Amino acid sequence: MSKEPRYIHHVNFPTTDPERTKEWYAKVFGMRSITPKSIRHTRPIQRPENQSMFCYIHDPDHTMIELVHHHKRPVSA
Fold first, then answer.
1. How far apart are CA 72 and CA 52, in angstroms?
2. CA distances from 11 to 1, 48, 49, 59, 65 (A)
3. Long-range contacts from 32-41, C-beta under 8 angstroms, 24+ separation
4. What is the pTM of this model?
5. How far is residue 55's CA from residue 58's CA, in Å, rounded to a whole number?
6. Contacts from 48-52 at CB under 8 Å and sequence distance 24+?
7. Run of H or E residues at 64
């Protein structure tokens, strides 16, 4: 039985410092940063209760992926 993950269910990287977060995940998990490519997506929608924006994309197996931008997310002390 393989010990490698077979799929990703959910990924969320809230951060106040994207560069620091990228460096940490690269160091701890060996992840690498990539530049996203232009891809078909649904119309971005804004949630009025918190001003966040979201849209959806699909991977080659038609798995729906939600992309979210949290507007003015509070900074933790």
1. 8
2. 24, 23, 23, 15, 10
3. 41/67
4. 0.51
5. 11
6. none
7. strand 64-69
Cα distance between residue 38 and residue 33, in whole Å: 16
Please, is 65 exposed, middle or buried when counting C-beta atoms within 10 Å of its C-beta (0-12, 13-18, 19+)? middle
Query: Which tokens sit at 41?
Result: 């997506």
Angle at the Cα of 55 from the Cα atoms of 51 and 56, rounded to 5 degrees? 155
% helix, strand, coil for the chain, step of 5: 15, 20, 65
Per-residue pLDDT of 15-45, as tens digits, reads 888 889 889 988 998 888 887 777 889 999 9
